[in-house]
Amino acid sequence: MIPDPWPAPHATQPVETVVSLPGSKSLTNRALILAAISDGPSTVHGALRSRDSLLMAGALEALGAEIDTLGPDWSVTPIPAVGAFERLDATVDVGLAGTVMRFVPPVAALSRGALAFDGDEHMRQRPVGRILDALRDLGVSVEGEALPFTLHGTGSVPGGVVTIDASESSQFVSALLLAGARYERGVDVRHRSDAPGSTVPSLPHIDMTVDMLRGHGVEVDTSEPNRWVVAPGPVKAVDETIEPDLSNAGPFLGLAALTGGTVTVMGWPEETTQPGRDWVSILSLMGCTVSLGEEGLTVTGPAVGHLQGVDLDLHDVGELTPVVAALCALASTPSRLTGIAHIRGHETDRLTALATELNALGASVEELPDGLVITPTPLHAGLFHTYADHRMAHAGVLLGAAVPGILVENVNTTSKTFTDFAPFWAGLFDTAVDTGS
To answer: Annotated active-site positions, please?
Structure first.
């Protein structure tokens, strides 16, 4: 039984370890969507088993797919006769999964009947209205502007051109692209915003979506900026192998950075569309030694107290911000993190949450409209709230590795993308740890 709050393990010497991480949530859930609307059975090898991925599997099963999630390789039998299947009055639980809330409705629009969507209380605050408006523009009937909402499918979607303001989330674009090939005229998604200089955040996630669509034989035109065109046609059944979750690698690599140790994440791909690939450049800028070899990515931290602050635009990799901010709070020089106004709409307002929790531990953090300015000051013991946000929990346990006496509230929220994270994390320290007990 994991206590709440959880006393985060504190490292008393450099951490030297090799870790093998679960698969990417972003890749797993995209793979499940494409397998469910493909033209035949397929297997998702090395699928992430977490709350988010199980919610995605459950949502697709509610639409008629069959997904065997018992082992590490998930077999998927697609939804019968996509474009004409009937699954009346189904209910979809999105939990705290943004990919389920946003990716499943465009697929559910191909059904006949009423599909009711709802989720955890925290999820009702996350933006989804632009997706629902886009579906209406494409000919779909939807009741509601946020969770809970109900979609009424007629068995097909006309598709065509749709303009959407995707400045809040790249998932708005990916959601429409993933189902677009099954629409009668495909889908032509165009980003447009009335806000001056507005851009789509987290573009690597859209690159991931496009790359996976093309791998399933779908024609996608990305030749114009802020426009993505998916041609109508079949989605080929393809067996997918899921890479390790590189965003989840952050706290583990951060252990090396903070303790002057060496951590290797096994199976790091040479090329990837995952935003977590930027850990290589970020940690290098902070003074770490980073190398990619046959075994994986190895990070060796500088001497304790010599981690460097950074000035970074994290617009494309906003999900890395909580762990980066924790590292910056423990660095030897100031940091400025910008371009991340959109993470106010993630599991929580991550900018306000980070500023609040770090300042409560003695840090000096100034909250900007689109980021944080962090001036290192000595931190002290205290309670770190997570706001039901797994990335906030990652930041909390990393702070605890460097500062004794950190208590992390609701550390089990990490199950969103990593089952049994807390015992796994504690096991890395072995004798180099003081849990405060």
So the answer is: 319
